[in-house]
Fold this sequence. Notes:
With 633 residues, the chain is α+β, with helices and mostly antiparallel strands. Among the domains are: 228-387, no CATH class; 458-582, Up-down Bundle (Methane Monooxygenase Hydroxylase, Chain G, domain 1). The chain contains 20 helices and 21 strands. The strands form 5 sheets. Strands 1, 2, 5, 6, 7, 8 and 17 form a 7-stranded mixed beta sheet that branches. A hairpin with a 2-residue loop joins strand 6 and strand 7 (167-174). The chain starts with a strand and ends in a 6-residue tail after the last helix. The relative contact order is 0.16. Flavin-adenine dinucleotide (FAD) binds next to helix 1, strand 6, strand 15 and helix 15.
Amino acid sequence: xxxxxxxxxxxxxxxxxxxxxxxxxxxxxxxxxxxxxxxxxxxxxxxxxxxxxxxxxxxxxxxxxxxxxxxxxxxxxxxxxxxxxxxxxxxxxxxxxxxxxxxxxxxxxxxxxxxxxxxxxxxxxxxxxxxxxxxxxxxxxxxxxxxxxxxxxxxxxxxxxxxxxxxxxxxxxxxxxxxxxxxxxxxxxxxxxxxxxxxxxxxxxxxxxxxxxxxxxxxxxxxxxxxxxxxxxxxxxxxxxxxxxxxxxxxxxxxxxxxxxxxxxxxxxxxxxxxxxxxxxxxxxxxxxxxxxxxxxxxxxxxxxxxxxxxxxxxxxxxxxxxxxxxxxxxxxxxxxxxxxxxxxxxxxxxxxxxxxxxxxxxxxxxxxxxxxxxxxxxxxxxxxxxxxxxxxxxxxxxxxxxxxxxxxxxxxxxxxxxxxxxxxxxxxxxxxxxxxxxxxxxxxxxxxxxxxxxxxxxxxxxxxxxxxxxxxxxxxxxxxxxxxxxxxxxxxxxxxxxxxxxxxxxxxxxxxxxxxxxxxxxxxxxxxxxxxxxxxxxxxxxxxxxxxxxxxxxxxxxxxxxxxxxxxxxxxxxxxxxxxxxxxxxxxxxxxxxxxxxxxxxxxxxxxxxxxxxxxxxxxxxxxxxxxxxxx
Length: 633
Ligand SMILES: Cc1cc2nc3c(=O)[nH]c(=O)nc-3n(C[C@H](O)[C@H](O)[C@H](O)COP(=O)(O)OP(=O)(O)OC[C@H]3O[C@@H](n4cnc5c(N)ncnc54)[C@H](O)[C@@H]3O)c2cc1C
């Protein structure tokens, strides 16, 4: 097996991994490799939304400050205060770096970087370059690769991490099924969100995720049960937020056969659930800017729309579509509440059909689907309640180092957000975290240079050679195995959760992982699926750990919070069976860790760290900056 050594290895080339590489190079750390499935892979370069948001300190509102921004983060609950302050304080540098690299964030005639309010945002901190903010960020960062002479190894899939006292190695497999060990002193783990865990998902198909590699290596995680779910079209995968909902489309559904083809005419279903039309139309309208499913908006609020879509799709097994071609039965502008009606009137969007209103208010939103081959003027759009983002991830300190020495985590795989996060803070966190990791690595290389001891990776090589061998005659194909754990996660670990069913799901998850380890996953060796098959090991492991953490949270009595609705056995008068939130848990963070000795997943609530109250004082802080002690606090 080939062994490739480097001082700093960056695993993943999304917006976070790329910024780690660029930052390290600029800091003078030359010996590095970006190891990735591909520069065109991952969420950042393949996703977007109608106005993809970047959150940062406000540069157009004189009232804002890092401390106030940290409070907004902290208010989401179960987020550490020191990380809230770090992500606020670092946001301007992260943002301005992207501006300098050419990302066209808008400014006004005086050069002020204008902003708008996103959710949980009192100070117009949000900005956007349009539907593809994260793609533009990646493109600007990728343009630095030749300029900074950054070595990139593409078409490799990492399948195991083996940490050692002097660093470690990432074992990867390429399309030919060849193995290589990438040996490092420092690792920036930037593999993105756990997209491959879910069947019903708006993550782009180019993202699978690899948090399971670090979890299997014994890294601690935080906040794993906290994710975001919301309504999205399934093909193409795209959030139906903003204007798509503000124009008040029709929600229709139909039963389907085993091939997924409708076997009955499409029929409007929301009137079955809503007695009050004003409430129904206004809830649909508000879904536009209240996009993520929010258990706090159940039963009074717009998230009832998500819940009803879930009931149609999951409980009744139907397909649900948005139809923009005609109004819902009984629709009238007079029936909208005053906020929705005035918004549409001011926008000049009082046309006869949702389609015409969409074309008037946001022609780009209509064109986007047409570019994907879906003409909303001719056909309805299939939607579902989809997984979109994991607020939790690996536990990190304020320099984004994980519980494993020398393993740093940045981007979505770092679990820095709490229960709720302001829209756009994922992109900010990735830029700040990757810079912090780069700064700390640079400092450690300077202050504690080390020569890696010679390591033997033959145990990993032997394991995987045998695993691929037995996979050729495994009882199930890699697709069947993946389908099984993805279906389990979408059924039991997504937006709607039930305690009793979760217990069985956890047991099934564990036994599937043991089966995959023991027997492998069958794949066709003539096509490049070795990496897909091998990835099932870390993915299946991760889904087991996630389900364990979700079950533990439920059994602790957290109740419904964020994007997770916990169902009680009985339905109430509103036909909703919600377990209410115990808000005392917002002051705690759930830590989850696999113990390789006991072979158990261990969970514990820890008190969250407060927002640091330390006053700055230029002379004394400058001294600490000069002598480098800022890096040690
Ligand atoms: C539909 C949608 C809309 C969103 N809108 C917003 C928004 O408006 N604002 C916001 O802030 N956030 C938004 N997000 C979230 C945000 O886009 C992501 O959190 C962010 O882009 C993740 O960046 P990343 O660098 O951490 O990971 P990614 O961009 O996913 O990159 C991960 C990298 O790791 C590589 N990788 C993964 N596993 C392996 C492996 N085993 N071996 C080798 N390489 C591997 C991948 O190939 C890729 O290069 C949205 C997400 C979605 C899905």
